Recover the amino acids of this structure.
């Protein structure tokens, strides 16, 4: 509580006030002390000032001094309330509704990918171990908002990790009771204390001291000296703001602590999407360079527990493939499919996948059952036609929506040819099936512990897929469609916040013409297409 950092936004302030408010009856004059903070909760009222800082510090002192923290009475039953969030664990030791001690613990990187059940179990174990002098040899209660943990002592131990945690509870006499999260506010707030501090983001502040690290590295120190003395003879290297760049990529010394942060951001985040080695490597290598980066990236991905849990080995099927002809223009020939049977998320339970067959650029559109051909057509116009126009052809399976008279007549009027894949043979439209598989894997990895929140991840899934490197294109779908990489703020470039186009984007000339770029893409795809259809 004493070390609680100043809230930076409304959500953090609500978390702090939620915790302190839970024990307001133990704090004399709580409303008066917290009044300046409560005013900040009004709409557009979050403007942190000296008055708020003073109230914040006073409230922390009030929460950690007598009469708030009770003296334990060993003749009464102790209660341990625990909770776990995505980034941390929290617990409160109580008697008669009053707090005796608080605990909050930030999760280490190796524990971030654990399931909700495992995190809640860890919160119980850490809390009991911390307050061992109070609890050992006495009967006590544990309150948690994970209902399945009520039967912890009766459950079959499923894995080595669970066995390890359960073993740490041997010798304690306790019962576990379920307490809904809305009633478990204190432990919940403590568990979320680290939510923002633990987020992996590469900011300008992260590069402070990087110059000193490079100076300590013997090899890079020599390179910097050569570039400073004879820049014309070392054109691959540039010095900007004291940082060294190799072919437009920021150089990091081997073993830098920043490398782990970069790996997390470009693999574990919504942008990285837990991609495989090749695509993660392409994404990172467009911005950064360090010695041995290929092996480090490969080792990091192989050790990713979320990837191991949610992915499977994809092997090429036996036999010859019969791919569809390559289109000549973007968004003239597309494919469509549905991903159904998803858990309800904001009322949605289906995803309509639309893929441009030339550039692989895709749109992921959520739908809610029940829907008909008219509903699908309206969504298609709102999300696809308004941007790309009506296509010349659509490849789809034989779903009743695509076979309906409304759908057929609508696209007949638009001059669109409807092509259907062979029944019970989804390989006929293999491209869309591959996109579906990628999307499903992404959503499993990112929304894993909260599958009913997949709709929130869908825009990020679309961005992730369209900015991922595709070997058949030798670029990303975004670049294949627009002739350039998406604008991105490459954080850490001397504090600049200007948008940087592409990986090594100093060129200020005209962008590559779209038609010329598409011709290059077609030339990349054609040899592979001919190889697939060539007889043995």
């Amino acid at each position: 509580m004493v070390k609680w950092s100043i809230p930076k936004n409304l959500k953090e302030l609500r978390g702090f006030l939620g915790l302190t408010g839970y024990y307001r009856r133990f704090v004399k004059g709580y409303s008066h002390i917290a009044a300046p903070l409560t005013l900040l909760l009004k709409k557009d009222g979050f403007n942190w000032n000296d008055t708020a800082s003073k109230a914040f510090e006073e409230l922390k002192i009030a929460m950690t001094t007598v009469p708030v923290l009770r003296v334990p009475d060993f003749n009464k039953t102790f209660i341990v309330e625990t909770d776990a969030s995505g980034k941390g664990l929290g617990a409160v030791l109580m008697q008669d509704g009053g707090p005796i001690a608080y605990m909050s613990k930030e999760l280490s990187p190796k524990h971030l990918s654990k399931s909700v059940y495992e995190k809640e179990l860890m919160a119980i174990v850490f809390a009991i171990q911390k307050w061992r002098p109070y609890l050992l040899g006495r009967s006590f209660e544990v309150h948690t908002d994970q209902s399945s943990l009520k039967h912890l002592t009766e459950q079959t131990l499923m894995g080595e990790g669970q066995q390890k945690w359960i073993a740490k509870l041997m010798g304690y006499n306790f019962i576990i009771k379920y307490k809904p999260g809305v009633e478990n506010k204190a432990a919940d707030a403590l568990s979320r204390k680290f939510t923002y501090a633990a987020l992996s983001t590469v900011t300008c502040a992260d590069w402070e001291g990087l110059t000193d690290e490079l100076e300590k590295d013997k090899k890079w120190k020599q390179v910097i000296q050569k570039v400073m003395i004879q820049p014309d003879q070392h054109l691959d290297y540039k010095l900007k703001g004291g940082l060294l760049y190799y072919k437009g990529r920021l150089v990091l010394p081997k073993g830098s602590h920043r490398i782990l942060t970069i790996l997390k951001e470009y693999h574990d985040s919504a942008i990285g999407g837990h991609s495989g080695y090749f695509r993660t490597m392409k994404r990172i290598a467009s911005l950064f360079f360090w010695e041995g980066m290929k092996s480090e990236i490969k080792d990091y991905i192989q050790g990713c527990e979320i990837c191991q849990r949610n992915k499977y080995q994809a092997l090429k099927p036996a036999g010859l493939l019969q791919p569809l002809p390559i289109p000549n223009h973007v968004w003239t020939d597309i494919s469509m499919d549905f991903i159904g049977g998803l858990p309800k998320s904001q009322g949605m339970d289906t995803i309509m996948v639309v893929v441009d067959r030339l550039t692989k650029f895709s749109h992921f559109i959520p739908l809610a059952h029940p829907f008909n051909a008219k509903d699908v057509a309206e969504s298609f116009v709102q999300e696809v036609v308004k941007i790309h126009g009506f296509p010349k052809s659509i490849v789809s399976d034989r779903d009743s929506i695509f076979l309906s008279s409304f759908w057929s007549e609508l696209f007949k009027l638009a001059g669109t040819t409807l092509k259907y894949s062979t029944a019970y043979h989804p390989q006929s439209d293999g491209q869309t099936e591959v996109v579906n598989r990628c999307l499903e894997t992404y959503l499993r990895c990112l929304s894993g512990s909260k599958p009913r929140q997949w709709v929130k991840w869908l825009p990020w899934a679309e961005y992730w897929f369209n900015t991922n490197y595709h070997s058949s294109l030798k670029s990303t779908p975004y670049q294949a469609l627009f002739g350039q990489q998406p604008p991105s703020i490459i954080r850490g470039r001397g504090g600049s916040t200007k948008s940087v186009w592409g990986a090594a984007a100093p060129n200020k000339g005209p962008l590559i013409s779209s038609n010329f770029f598409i011709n290059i893409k077609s030339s990349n795809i054609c040899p592979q297409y001919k190889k697939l259809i060539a007889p043995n």
About this structure: Residues 359 and 481 are 6 Å apart (CA to CA). Residues 514-533 form the longest helix (20 residues). The first strand starts at residue 78 and ends at 84. The chain is about 40% helix and 15% strand.
